[in-house]
Amino acid sequence: MAASAAALLCACSAPQPDASREQIKLALAVDARPTVNPDEQDRAAPVLVRVYELKTEAAFSSADYFSLDQNDSTVLTQDLLARDAFVLRPGESRSIERKLNPQTTALGFLVGYRDLGKATWRTVYPLPPAPEAAWYRAVVPARKVRLQVVLDQQTITVIKPD
């Protein structure tokens, strides 16, 4: 019974999409360069990557790496709308395609580089506000945001291709 109550509470507290706003499509390519995350001998190594859909970026931008790594759902509380987590090896890529929550105002990127003190391990990409929902979206495609995220030796670069 307690498990049922907990499941109900989780379902009720999950952010619900705003029906008055349109869902923007996301096409995201995350590319790890062959030289990503080098050790002392300049050998590349895999990295943990997390992509966050955020309602606001304040909590994400002010949190330290270890808080986000170990307890992101608590640290981000109401700002966290969705999360993807995966490991990329040097030279590997990952694509994510889905509809964003209409409340998403930014994407947060967190990368577990070996030398966090010298690395840019976090970046935020602000998104345009979701447009008002329209009846004609049944026949006219929704807006799409295309982004490429490049993971270099110790930096994250977000590129919006033309």
TrEMBL record:
The keyword Lipoprotein applies. The keyword Lipoprotein applies. Pfam families: T6SS-SciN. Keywords: Lipoprotein. It comes from the Bacteria. PANTHER family: OUTER MEMBRANE LIPOPROTEIN, OUTER MEMBRANE LIPOPROTEIN-RELATED. This is Type VI secretion system lipoprotein TssJ. It comes from Cupriavidus oxalaticus. The lineage of its organism: Bacteria, Pseudomonadati, Pseudomonadota, Betaproteobacteria, Burkholderiales.
